[in-house]
Amino acid sequence: MKARExxxxxxxxxxxxxxxxGFGVDDALEEYQEYLDSNDDxxxxxELASLLNASMDDEHRLYFHVxxxxxxxxxxxxxxxxxxxxxxxxxxxDMEITIxxxxxxxxxxxxxxxxxxxxxxxxxxxHVGQHARIKDLDNxxxxxxxxxxxxxxxxxxxxxxxDPHELMAYGETLSQEIADTAxxxxxxxxxxxxxxxxxxxxxxxxxxxxxxxxIKALLKYAYGYLRA
Length: 228
Fold this sequence. Notes:
globular, 2 domains, 3 strands, mainly alpha, single chain
């Protein structure tokens, strides 16, 4: 498989939606700080998720949940865009955010939380755009579905990350990480030298050799998003 065979035109996350959600997140985090001030600064992720859900506009179809179990993933949150149909047959995509309570409680900070969340939402909005572009969506397996039968974590990573739609969405995520570096142009030309600052690139390089189509596609998408 050549890199050009898994490349399609970048889908730009709707920044009006991102901005609107951002306002709601700000309101929820302000209320959560009031909760913390009244409760000896003890984190309660169920309270945080409840405040976030209450601050979201229904039209954005964004929902927050809490995982209170221990997870192998060293991540504050995970996200998934799930497509389906309403009762009247309209195609819609819900964005589901799961807060990993045991990874966040005790280390929570509002700026870090919002940055991680908004980065996840940009990623999922790429998937929402992909859903709108695909005609026969019900017969297409997602990256998660393709990886479901994996017997090891490494096999799961390979099957999940090589999905063309994940490559695009992670290209958008990588572009934001590159933009955060001191010299994005230099970073983009030689991401190998900046892996510690680029967790998305490091994740892919832990899974795929340097000159594989997946790495080339990831970087091509990232470059496109940086230039958008």
